[in-house]
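Table S2 (text version). Query chain:
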Amino acid sequence: MRMVSRKLRFRTALFMVVYLGAFHLAPAAAGLAPSRTSGATAIVSPRDADRVVVQRALENKIVAQKLRDYGVSPGEVELKLAGMSDHDLHTLASASKGLPSGGDGVDALIGLLIIVLLVILILKLMNKQIIVK
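Corresponding structure-token output:
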């Protein structure tokens, strides 16, 4: 027993051939986007670059919590960074490059978990068996 008649399948296939063929006739335009400054960055010197690296390290939740535990407020940290010499700021930036910037890595863990769940879901929808030994 056929669910869809032969005539409807032929018309659908013909429609898809014509529709997809129209994509090849439509002109496509491509080119390089002009470069311009976004205005969001203010890095004009090595000192500014080092300051950005230190700021990102200070955004780490663990580092921020440790500073609060020692009784240092974010305002005091800003004052201290502004008063540091170029050499000291560069040393601090070099030491903090190993730290993750911003969060504590939970985002990556959640992303990995979502990917694993999607793979399992796709395998289940395909009626595949998942066996872990």
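Notes on Table S2: The CA atoms of residues 47 and 87 lie 9 Å apart. The chain is about 60% helix and 0% strand.
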